[in-house]
Design a protein that fits this description.
The protein has 279 residues and is α/β, with parallel strands linked by helices. It contains 7 helices and 10 strands. The structure holds flavin mononucleotide. The site of flavin mononucleotide (FMN) has 16 residues, from loops.
């Protein structure tokens, strides 16, 4: 006999406040302030495709799909974003035993679970020379031909992106040189795209100074850094050595940052298309 399983559909969104009970025993409610609700379903199949009865879906019409987190308990997104965005996660540390890797990978999984295209950009795997090219990046961008193979690959990743999340530690109240060097290798790749900034440190300032130092650099790309930021520190209180999250409240902050980043990502993507501004 098939085993009945309990599945959950979690939605975090800006939705009106409502509660309902369905004839099939589904219950939905919004928890005030965090705009999160959960649908529970007893089914015999894994609900990655369409586990919830069709009559429930009109209820989702009020949600701004694409600005929501929708996932099953199997981790797969159930409702795809209406506008697909590519949101790479840039890791700012290449240090042996780096602590920023855990939050970067955690955020990567969250972005994936929300249904967006993403990847980790790790300059340990993709080392870039200190900027030593004869010309400025915009010229190499125009020719789509950087003088370094890894710089070319980095350019291709960045030009395909619609938004970025930087997860970086604070070094001497600023950003790590490796991160600034990576940003120096690009320019047009970043133009008119939004950046979400996440600071990491072993102290309570948690990368806040690093974040503020990054903003004018991003502004120079004619890009924008969104207001919402995440400061993770002391890092040891957020993730254990195996990379396990110790403070579940981080999820709300990630959702808030992603919600805003997606808003800007969609708006700027549409604007780039309308204005024939392709890069
Ligand atoms: C070169 C260097 C400079 C640092 N400067 C700061 C700092 O200014 N503020 C701070 O809160 N932590 C600072 N730290 C401590 C870092 O927050 C801590 O080592 C953190 O784990 C670094 O991230 P990572 O492990 O991903 O490289 C510094 C660490 C290094 C290696």
């Amino acid at each position: 006999m098939a085993k009945w399983q309990t599945h959950y559909l979690e939605v975090v969104a800006t939705a009106r406040s409502w509660e309902f009970d369905s004839p099939l025993g589904h219950h939905g409610s919004i928890i005030p302030h965090c705009f999160r609700f959960r649908l529970k379903s007893e089914t015999q199949s894994v609900p990655d495709a369409a586990p919830f009865p069709k009559f429930l879906f009109p209820l989702f019409s009020d949600l701004k799909v694409g600005q929501t987190f929708v996932k099953s308990n199997s981790g797969a997104p159930l409702i795809k974003p209406s506008i697909m965005l590519n949101i790479p996660i840039i890791l700012g540390s290449v240090r042996e035993g780096r602590k920023s890797e855990a939050p970067a990978k955690y955020i990567l999984e969250k972005v994936k679970a929300a249904g967006y295209q993403t990847r980790l950009v790790d300059f340990k795997e993709l080392p870039l020379p200190f900027y030593d090219a004869a010309s400025i990046p915009a010229e190499y961008f125009a020719k789509d031909n950087y003088p370094d193979q890894n710089a070319q690959q980095w350019s291709e990743i960045a030009r395909a992106a619609d938004a970025f999340i930087i997860v970086s530690p604070e070094y001497n109240h600023g950003y790590p040189a490796v991160l600034k060097n990576a940003l120096d290798w690009g320019y047009s790749e970043f133009t008119r795209k939004p950046f979400g900034l996440v600071g990491v440190s072993n102290g309570t300032v948690a990368g806040a100074r690093m974040i503020e130092h990054l903003r004018p650099i991003i502004q120079n790309f004619n890009a924008m850094s969104i207001r919402e930021t995440i400061m993770i520190g002391p890092i040891e209180t957020y993730f254990d050595d195996s990379g396990k999250l110790l403070k579940p409240e981080l999820d709300n902050k990630i959702e808030g940052l992603l919600d805003s980043l997606v808003w800007w990502g969609e708006a700027l993507k549409k604007a780039r298309e309308i204005s024939n501004y392709s890069n």
